[in-house]
Amino acid sequence: MVRLIAAGRGATIGVALAMLAGAALFVSAPIASSAPPQATATPASAASIETAVVIATYPHDTGAFTQGLFFSDGRLFESTGQEGESAIRELDLATGKVKREVRLPAEYFGEGSTGWGKTIVSLTWKHGKGFRWDRDTFRKLGEFTYPGEGWGLTQDGKSLILSDGSNELRFLDPKSFAEQRRIRVTWRGRPLRQLNELEYVHGEILANVWHQDVIVRIDPASGVIKGAIDLRAVTASLGLNDGEAVLNGIAWDAKAGKLYVTGKRWPKLFEIALPGDN
After folding, report:
1. In 55-71, which positions are buried (b, 16+ CB within 10 angstroms) versus exposed (e)?
2. What are the tens digits of pLDDT across the range 173-183?
C-alpha cells in the first residue's frame, strides 16, 4: 500500500470542467427521451471540481476489462467485459487477486453490476439482458430484459439505477426490473452523454464518463451535475498506452467509509478521498 499525493480544490465548473463540455459533445445527434421536464436545481455554475486525493493504492488485474465495481458487506466485487472474457468476480483488495469468479456465456459482453441484498445484478452491453446471481455461491438465480444497451449499474437502497451510454439514467424496480422513472443528466442545461459506471454515495450518483478522466456528481432528483472529481493526474501516473484502458470503476465501501476507483486493464486500484473531505 502506497500513501499519497498532493491534492487540491479547483475552480468552478465553468473553467475546470472544460473537458466536460467536450464530453457532452461526444455524441452529436440528439437522443430521444421520454423523461418528463425536471425541476431546477442548484445552478451548475455554482458547482466545483476537486482534484482527486489519492489516499492509498492497491494492485489490480491488468487483464480485467472493468465494467462494474462495488462493495457488498465489505467485500469487493467486479464485473468485466469483452466477449468470451466477461465475468463476475470477488476480489481480494490487498492483493488484487481473484478469489473466485463465474464466466458469462461467451456471446455476452458483460457490463455494470451492483449488489442487492445477498444477490448481484449484472448487465450486458447490446443483448438487452441482465442476470441475477447469488452473491455467496455465484449461482445464477435468473435473467431479465431491458430495452437498449446496458452500461453502468448501481442502487440507492430503493431502486436499481442503470446507464445506457446516453445522458439518461433509468431507475428500475429491483424485483421486477420494471422502469420506475428516468432523469436527464445535464451540465448548464446541456446533456452530458456517455455516462458509464455508476456508484451511489451519500445521496449522489457518481458516474464515469466514457473516455474522460473525470467522475461527475449527479443530483438523483434533477439530474443536474453538482460537481466533479478530476482524475487526469491519476490516469497520467499510470503511463498507459492502451487507448481503451480508460477510467471505469467506482466502488464505495459503506462499512469502512472509503471510496475506490480503477479502470479497464489498469494495474492499480486507488482509494481516493470522498469529495468535500479533503
Report:
1. bebbbbbeebbbbbbbb
2. 999 999 999 99
